[in-house]
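Protein 1 of 2
SEQ + STRUCT:
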Amino acid sequence: MMPFSRKRLRLAFLGLGWIGRDRMERLSASGLADVVALADSDQNALAACQATARHATQAQALEDIFTERPDAVVIATPSAGHAEQAIRTLEAGMAVFCQKPLGRTAGETAAVVDAARRADKLLAVDLSYRHTEAARALQREISSGRLGELSFVDLCFHNSYGPDKEWFYDRHRAGGGCLTDLGTHLVDLALWLLDWPEMKCTSAQVRHRGSRVPIEGSAVEDFALATLETPSGLPIRLSCSWKLPAGQDAEISASFYGAGGGVSMRNLGGSFYDFETRRLNGCTSEILASPPDDWSGRAAMAWLDRLAHDSGFDPACGRLIDVAAVLDDIYASAGVLRGPLFHLP
């Protein structure tokens, strides 16, 4: 009997900045897929992908890559386009892997999830931090019950630099500032690790250069602080920022405290990539996970592996709406008006 031979998938990539290019290189190296089309308005970005995808068709628009009939499209464009581009791709019969946020509001996010359901196509978002070994160690310790009843959760993500692309600082193109960019990861981690409870924002502040974010105009927040609460009364503190003088490149942590001890995931030496998780026992601690850990492409690889076996709709993507709804609630509590940002089909 001949061994089973899996058909290689055909992938197209829309948006080829550093993260789009990184995901393209990782998925191309998997052996599961061929890169058949690349699209970006920047010719330099296309040229940078030449060595990895020399046989791929190069284009500037989404419709142009549809002609290559890919099985799926990987989207890494400015946030304003994510929802509309994902919906068009799904309605054209292709699966989607998208950078976060999938939508700038819960309404946009729900529209994409509904499109995936109607098309019966796989949809996933690059919420990559939950794929770190450090986060998995957090999950094991929390789910074991050894912490007892949780009493407090503390989440932070401070980026001392801030994004290097100007569109991140435009409310209409990005949907929000550091809360949308960094807080999305924190909210996703908290919901996932706590097994998706309801969360209500009880207080929130967002700031733009030390002052309140203007109601009018395009300015976004560069600092956000919020307190969330689950139905059981568990308080969750979230803080995130761009360009905060943190004394290092980044400060990232997720800490969970209970009657039986605590567990904390933290970045090491200001790194955006190296994480350590420790079990906390009063005045002592023990390491549960530590570098090295090459995690940045795991979310994409998990999506690709599933796609190779089943391209159909995954109901788990409905959790993306839950994440977006918590972010909407934080913005509303802080007095930042948000709503549908463009008409979706």
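Protein 2 of 2
SEQ + STRUCT:
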Amino acid sequence: MKRTIAFFINGFLLAALMTGGMAMADNHDDHERADHFEGKSSETLQEAVTNFSEGNQQLAELLASDELSNQQMGELHMLTYTLENALQKIDAEVDAMAVTLEEVHLGSESLDQQRVAENGAEYLEAARTLVE
């Protein structure tokens, strides 16, 4: 179970870092770039995981084509905004999970059962959302 959670967390963090790197690597002039879209928002971790999962499925379907049409490239472009939104939310939530897990850790060191129980429940709720 620990390996599964670590795998998902590491995968999400790697994807978030890659997304940030791609954004910084963009050096095209504004007139050469495609229009910008907002994409689906990810207000909660559950929405982010759903958008991430569905978006990756759509991306896989698009990339399965031998050649992408201009329309498909446009769809792919719009889809990346949704995926970026999802990754940003997941990244923020994973950061919050790390803080909460540290509270569990510190509570266990000081034998503070209430601190462990409260923070442990909060951590597990978020962790289950990631792995379900």
